[in-house]
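User: Show me a protein chain along with its predicted structure.
Assistant: Here is one chain, sequence first, then structure tokens.
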Amino acid sequence: MPTEPTVEFSAFGTLIPVIVAIIGAIAALLIHHYQVRQEIKMRIATERFERKKEACRRVIETMNALIDFMFRLGQPVNWRIAREIYSELVLVGSPDVISRFNKFMKEYDKSQNDNLILDVWYAMHRDLYGESLPSGSIKFIEPPRSVLDIMQEASPSWSRIMQEGIRGWDDLARIDEKSLSRKIGVAEDLLVRLKATALDEVRREEEKVKLFQRRL
């Protein structure tokens, strides 16, 4: 009889490591499950952010292209590409971004107000990073004044220039100023300066392409 408690205690003692092992296994399983869930959430959030950032980047590129074309500084925007970019924005952009972009598309060609551009960019930054930048933090980078001036000077003659199939900087960079001046009645001096500007713009575009190719 005196030995029975000892036997029971001994039997219980052998169970302690088993219980501890089971508890440890359950805890490890729960921790692993939690870590996996967190990793999945992080991956989904990262993928969502990257998709949204890419959509915003393409919208900005489209806006820049539209503005350039309005000022005869670039080629027409492919409407099919623009529609696909807008469709992606609808899927990932916030209501504020979509609303401000719609306003830009509706009003910019009439008012040419830079605030319409900046409103979209501020909304995109807020959507991506969850914080509002102070007013005046974002600037719209315009072409050099000399480019805007020569395009303004050439504006009355642009319809005659376009009738010769000249649509952008690449075309302007290849013109024969003398023969084109005689053919369409535009001052040769103006065409010389337009061609020089076009050559500069073609060079700038090539530099931009090379820069971003190196980054890739």
